[in-house]
Amino acid sequence: MRTDSSHGNAVILMYHRIADDGTELCVSPAEFRAHLAVLREEGCRVLPLQELTQALARGDAPPRSVAITLDDGYLDALTEAAPLLREFEYPATFFIITATLDGPAEFWWETLQRVFDHPALPAELDAELAGTQAPLPLDTPEQRRAAFDTVRRPFYAWTPQQRRERIAALLAWSGLTAADGTGPVRAMTPEELRHLDAMPGMELGAHTENHLLLPAHALPIKEQELLLCRQRLEALLGREVRSLSYPYGAFDEESVRAAQRAGFAAAVTTGNQPASAHSHPLVLPRCAVQAGDDLRARLRELFAAAPQAHHYDRSFA
């Protein structure tokens, strides 16, 4: 008889992309199917996020409870993840960035990756565009990766306008153009989002309007990011939206209180910890899953861990 669930822990899994691209955000469809099979083999009870949140609050979550979540709203959530989830009859929550509803969208971090992957870049990136005191060399793959990391770093705390201006400048410098929305690495369209939400067991949740680092912004911006995202999704789907994922897993007390005022009943962060009856429903920790992870071992470890109380002081670093 298993005893690893005696603490009443639950595990909320966090994925991003289900694709064969081999990037850090990707788990291949074959590996995702294997993960779903592990959940079945381990006797996990896969629940909708809202149902699990309510059960945790009551203190009666079923042993070995799991919820599955996917962030950002990539097209492969619909084309790859959803069919596999339906094959196993598992529910899931997909967190959507609503700024992408305005047209064919490429997330800013994907645009940056495309720029630095371009084979015909100049030999160096000038200091002004890099935001550094000296130009950044780009001769080797290692130098390109270092330059990519340097350029990416300030984007997290920037406003949408600052991001757009820097992206436009980098595209012009590289000779590339903005994405036209025809490629596979893009956000879902409104029609695709409605299609996904209509599938049995599939729920769409909010991931803010612009995927901002909430603790870096003033309260009015936090409130707008949360409320506007929820309102736009509800208008699109014709139903109430009660689930939220904080971008980058980052939150502060203002963000949590703003989420509560915006009407969210469950909100997830990161942390690689189990959720339990001690978890605040608006600060639910998740376990990030990446390619190559031993999900079976991680589940057993998380179910056996001592439960931890919620906290409001997690900041992005």
Automatic annotation (TrEMBL):
Organism listed in the record: Lysobacter yananisis
Sorted UniProt keywords: Hydrolase, Signal
Annotated coiled-coil segments of the chain: none
Annotated EC: 3.-.-.-
Descriptive protein name: Polysaccharide deacetylase family protein
Matching InterPro entries: Glyco_hydro/deAcase_b/a-brl (IPR011330), NODB_dom (IPR002509), Polysacch_Deacetylase (IPR051398)
Pfam families in UniProt: Polysacc_deac_1
PANTHER family membership: POLY-BETA-1,6-N-ACETYL-D-GLUCOSAMINE N-DEACETYLASE, PTHR34216
Domain NodB homology: 64-317
Keyword presence, Nucleotide-binding: no
Signal is among the record's keywords: yes
Single annotated GO MF: hydrolase activity
